[in-house]
Write a sequence for this structure.
């Protein structure tokens, strides 16, 4: 995948379930996303983690098996002719995941891990780096530089909120134009910025009722892309259900956002 795929008159969208749970549901989500984004002329990258390495409790769901999940992501690509993105957590996973997906995503907690960034860069895939909840937007220049210094100019930067207190995140929208100055596409991760981590139950909470608010503001300040985790039934999702958008609400939300985008 080349970054030119993401360029259009509209913003682009990274969307899908938090984690690959099973094949049939994944394909149904991808099919619906494809129908909606084709209708609205929004470039789509299908998102699904092949494994969740960062969980609150040891008994939390992590995945269905690395190879099995990655093969499902490849099937999404082949069936619907859309690029795919997944997270990697350790350097050795870069080459493995690159065989199946088009974009390698660096989780926010790992955005300073030099070896991981270099390994992702050397695959030649697009590298989406999420801004650490503990970093300023200005600091992301150096994360991106680790990728470009490794010979890969295909970088995306993603804002996902900043830690505020012990159990909440805030979005400083100044970060979007700041990171755009570095010359890379900038994405607003809407659903993760509404997480409420470190809950007493050991299960991350969220404020999905504010998805539209965060999304509207992101479009208004010039985000190039939007990241939205979505699921047919968020309550039953095996990861991040508390902050996901119900799949049947996506088209209505995108329609509103495109009107804001057009007005600008």
């Amino acid at each position: 995948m080349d970054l030119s795929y993401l360029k259009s008159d509209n913003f682009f969208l990274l969307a899908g379930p938090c984690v690959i749970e099973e094949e049939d549901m994944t394909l149904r989500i991808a099919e619906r996303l494809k129908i909606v984004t084709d209708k609205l002329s929004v470039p789509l990258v299908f998102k699904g983690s092949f494994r969740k390495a960062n969980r609150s409790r040891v008994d939390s769901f992590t995945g269905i098996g690395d190879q099995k999940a990655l093969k499902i992501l490849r099937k999404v690509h082949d069936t619907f002719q859309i690029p795919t993105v997944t997270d990697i957590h350790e350097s050795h996973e870069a080459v493995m995941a690159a065989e199946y997906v088009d974009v390698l995503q660096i989780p926010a907690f790992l955005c300073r891990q030099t070896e991981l960034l270099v390994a992702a860069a050397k695959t030649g895939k697009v590298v989406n780096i999420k801004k650490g909840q503990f970093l300023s937007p200005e600091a992301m220049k150096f994360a991106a530089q680790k990728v470009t210094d490794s010979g890969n100019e295909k970088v995306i930067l993603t804002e996902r909120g900043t830690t505020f207190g012990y159990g909440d995140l805030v979005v400083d929208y100044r970060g979007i134009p700041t990171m755009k100055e570095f010359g890379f596409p900038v994405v607003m991760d809407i659903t993760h910025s509404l997480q409420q981590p470190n809950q007493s139950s050991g299960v991350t909470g969220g404020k999905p009722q504010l998805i539209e608010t965060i999304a509207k503001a992101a479009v208004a300040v010039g985000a190039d892309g939007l990241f939205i985790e979505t699921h047919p039934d968020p309550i039953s999702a095996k990861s991040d259900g508390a902050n996901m958008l119900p799949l049947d609400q996506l088209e209505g939300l995108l329609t509103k956002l495109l009107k804001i985008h057009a007005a600008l």
Remarks:
- The first helix runs from residue 23 to 40.
